[in-house]
Known about the structure:
By secondary structure, this protein is of the alpha/beta class. It is about 30% helix and about 25% strand.
Amino acid sequence: MKQIELKAGREASVERKHPWIFSRALVSTKGIEAGDMVEVLDSEGHFCGRGYYEGGSIAVRLLTFAEGEQIDASLWQRRFQEALEARKAFGLLASPREGFRLVYGEGDSLPGLIVDLYGGVAVMQAHTLTMHLRRRELTESLATVLGERLEAVYYKSSDSLPMVEGVVDELLYGSIDAVEQVVAEEQGIRFSPDILRGQKTGFFLDQRQNRARVGELAKGRRVLNMFCYTGGFSLYALRGGAERVVSLDSSPRAMDLLEDNLKLNFGEVPTCHESVVGDAFKYLYEMEEGAFDMIILDPPAFAKRREVLRNGLQGYRKLNSAALRKIAKGGLLFTFSCSQVVGVEEFRQALFTAALHAGREVRVLEQFGQFADHPVSIYHPEGSYLKGFLLYVS
Length: 394
Ligand code: SAH
C-alpha cells in the first residue's frame, strides 16, 4: 500500500478521529493517484490510519484508524455488518419490506458511500471516485452480509458523481424486475420508490420520524404539504385522519408517483386529497388566509454551498414568512432545512425574522433532525444536515 505523510503539526484532526485529511496537511502526493488506497503516517513515520486518496481539497478519506485493520473485503463486510446491527437496534429489521438507509457515509465509517435498502432491493450511491471504482467488490460484500434478504443491487451514481466521466447507473446484482417493482414500507405505510428515474435513491428516508409526528398531529386538520415529492408527509397525514390534504410539487412526475402511493395505501386517491403541480412560493402568496391549519415546508436545499449561504437564508426567510402569514390561527407549521451549510441556529434565526415579518405570535414546540438511519459520527459533525422545527402559530 502506498504511504502518504502528514506535515509536522497537522496530526490533531487524525488524533480526533476525523475521517478527512485536507490536501494542505500533506507533505507530497507524488506518485499517488485518485482511487489509490493509502496508509497515512505522521511526520515521524507513525501510523495514523488507512483510507483512500481522491485528490481535491478533501484529499484523503480514512476508512480505519486501527493499525491491525487492512482494507479488503473483510473490512467492507465488517462495516456493513456493523451498520446493520445499528439499524437492528432501532427495530428497522423487524419487517423484511421496511425501507431504510443502511449505509450513511462517514456516519457508518464508509466515507463516500450510501446504501438505501427498500425491502430486498439495495440502491448504492457513490460520492467519490474510489467508491465508484470499488462498486463491484462492495456489492459482493453486501451480498455476503445480507444473504437471502438481498434481491437486487442497483447502482445509481450518475447524479452524485457529475465530475467523473463515464458513470452509468446499472444493475449490479439480481434482476431489474425486482428493482422496478419493489414496494417498500415505512412504519406500515407502503410506497414504491422511483429508483430508476427519481431523485436521490428514489425516496427521502431521512424524514421518517418527522412524518410520524405529522401523522400523530394531523387529525381533523386541513394540511398543506409543500414540496411533497412522492408524498411521504401526505400519506401520514391522511392515515392520521386529516380532514383535507393538499400536496404540491413543481414536478408533474412527482405527482404521478404520489398518486400511485395513495392508491397503494388507500386503494384509490382519497376524495379529501388534492394534488397540485405548481410553485410553492406562488401558491403561498396567492392562497387565502387561514385556509390551512397544518403546513409542511420541506424544500430542496436552498444553500448547497457556503458561498450561497446568504441567498439560501433569504429563501428560508421568504418561504417561512409567507407560510406564517397565511396559516390559520392555532396552526402547526412543520418547517425544515436540509442544507448542510445552514446550522440549526442560523435556521432558527431565519424563522425568527420570518415570524417578525409575518407579525404572528409563534411558539417553538419541537425540534427535529434526520432519522437515526442517517447517523452522525461523533467525530464527524459535518454529517448532520437536516433540521426542523414545529411552530405553533396564534
Ligand atoms: N418532502 C419530500 C421531499 C422534498 S424534495 C418528501 O418527504 O419526500 C424537494 C422537492 O421540491 C422536489 O420534489 C422538487 O421537485 C420540489 N421543488 C423544488 N422547487 C420547488 C418549488 N419552487 N415549488 C414547488 N416544488 C418545488
